Amino acid sequence: MLFTIEKREEIRNAIISNVKSDNRIVSAAVIGSYSRGEVDRWSDIDLTFGIDETVPTNTVMDSMTEYMIQEFQAVVLFDISRGTTMYRVFILPGCLQVDLSFSSVSHFGAVGSHFTLLYGSSLEKPQPMPQKTRELFGYMIHHLLRAKFCAERDRLWQAEFWLAEARNYALKLACISHNLTIDYGRGYDDLPQEVLDCFTGSFIAQITKEEIVRGIREVIAGIPMISDEVREYADELGDILTEITSME
């Protein structure tokens, strides 16, 4: 049975209560959907912790992992390191995801705007620079070209991968032009329907060279609808976009 909202809150409160009793964890904060005020039926649990300077961060992470396994039958999915912060992602029975991150308190602070301190203190950290439209446009064109060449080589599953990546970059560019988040597709569903309609046809019905080339054409046809800035970048390419959609 899938997790219930009540069970999620029970687990979340238990984790917070546990870390408050651990004097090695001197700061804690809520991140993710809880911090954004966007919690819904399917939200996961995202918590981040600042660890006392005298304690190795990985020691606390291992202790928390043991706690998660013993108390909630958690399974570790993967770890991610970003700068001085280590993230560990768990899956619990009922398909509840729990993301816990750990950093030394001297480096503990918000990375992004969604960070709500539970206790302790945090630093004002420099925020990452947003990706530039020109750079994203370049990736989109690169991925379209990769899709074409893979299709020409009859590497059709690889071609489909690149086509999907190109579509994602097109939608990221559209999100930027409408002041929506580009991370993990979060802004896609908030795009105007007329923009989404431009890219609906780029999904392929079967893994064939003809379908992939058709999908490439659909992505390229939607480029002028993204923004005036993107349209100008496309104009700089001259006949290259037409050449990408040709078949041999």
Q: Descriptors for this entry?
A:
Four Helix Bundle (Hemerythrin (Met), subunit A); Beta Polymerase, domain 2; 6-stranded mixed β-sheet; single chain; 248 residues
The CATH architecture of the largest domain comes to 2-Layer Sandwich
Q: Radius of gyration over alpha carbons?
A: 22 Å
Give the structural class: alpha+beta
Ends distance: 52 Å
Number of domains: 2
* Widest beta sheet: strand line-up: 3-4-5-2-1-6
As residue ranges, the low-confidence spans are: none
**In the CATH scheme, what's the topology name of the largest domain?**
Beta Polymerase, domain 2
In CATH, what is the homologous superfamily of the largest domain?
Beta Polymerase, domain 2
CATH class of the largest domain: Alpha Beta
Walk me through the structure.
The model has no long low-confidence stretch (mean pLDDT 94). The chain has a 6-stranded mixed beta sheet. It contains 9 helices and 6 strands; from the N terminus they run H-E-H-E-H-E-E-E-E-H-H-H-H-H-H. The chain starts with a helix and ends with a helix. The protein has 248 residues and is an alpha+beta fold. Helix content is 46%, strand content 18%. Helix 6 (193-200) runs antiparallel to helix 7. A hairpin with a 3-residue loop joins strand 4 and strand 5. The chain folds into 2 domains: 5-119, 2-Layer Sandwich (Beta Polymerase, domain 2), CATH 3.30.460.10; 133-244, Four Helix Bundle (Hemerythrin (Met), subunit A) (Up-down Bundle), CATH 1.20.120. It is elongated. The longest helix is centred in the last third of the chain and has 22 residues, at 156-177.
